[in-house]
Amino acid sequence: METKKLGKQSVKLVNPPSIAATYSIVGPKEGEGPLGKYFDAILDDEYWGESTWEKAETKMVKECIGNCIAKVQLSNSDIDYLLAGDLINQCTPSCFGSRETSIPFFGLFGACSTFTESLSLGSMLIDGGYATNVVCATSSHFCSAEKQFRFPLELGNQRPPSAQWTVMGTGSAMLTKNGDGPYITCLTTGKIVDMGIKDANNMGAAMAPAAVDTMYMHFKDTGRSSNYYDLILTGDLGYIGKEITTELMETRGYNIKNNYNDCGVLIFDKEKQDTHSGGSGCGCCASTFCGYIFNQMQAKKLKRVLLIATGALMSPTTAQQKESICGIAHAVSIESNL
Question: The CATH number of 1-338 is which of 3.40.50.300, 3.40.50.720, 3.40.50.1980, 3.40.47.40?
Fold first, then answer.
């Protein structure tokens, strides 16, 4: 029996799934950023005709999944599994946004790492012969996330420079057994890394060690060098986390300065938009990949991408109990050709 396991944490897919299509929806601030032209839909306001921010995010999930499926001219009955997650308690937007689909559903929570978690699990379902078509979706909303994890917006609390802006966005990717690429070829599942950081306004520092751990293990398990990839892209570290990651990888013998970037850095304009240390949130990695990166791969401007979404596994309860912030990061290798 052929083994698919590489080293301690990685998997090489024998039947790599293809990403047939993506769909992305973002809020007005994200639409005004450098990547605005790559998103499928840009909303005019944070409510999108709904009475609450949470309902707006639910609507985003519903529309994003539906439009992603429509792009490949399939119906809901053609989809074997739907894997989705977000930041709100009990993954409410994902659950309620999926309730009318009648698609077998897995609700996931990996904080901001959820997008690559869903891509990883969806790829293994297809590679294992358990599915032909799988939709992976992830979302976040600035207003609802701030209310849950930091302070109600009505208080007008001043944000420190280390704080990141939770992206209002959602992204869906259609994985299929049969397709022309780009393909998900390898996965590296992260483990929890906790460096004792407790500051919820410094997510980059809390998550960067997990990104480094997973990135290093990916190179070690696969035997690949960092130069194998046209782009190494973390999900949600922002400027501070990106700098920490670059420095820590150098101490492990990897110079990634020339081909490394972060979705939280790409999605906003640091000079023109007041987002402090950049973007974060489940929707940061999801919308950036489903909008910009997938476009670049289809145009063959990028042929090999290592996508590493990073998450801070905290909750209002753990914050009130003065717990430190656990970090997690999952990596997927996406290649135009097999």
Answer: 3.40.47.40
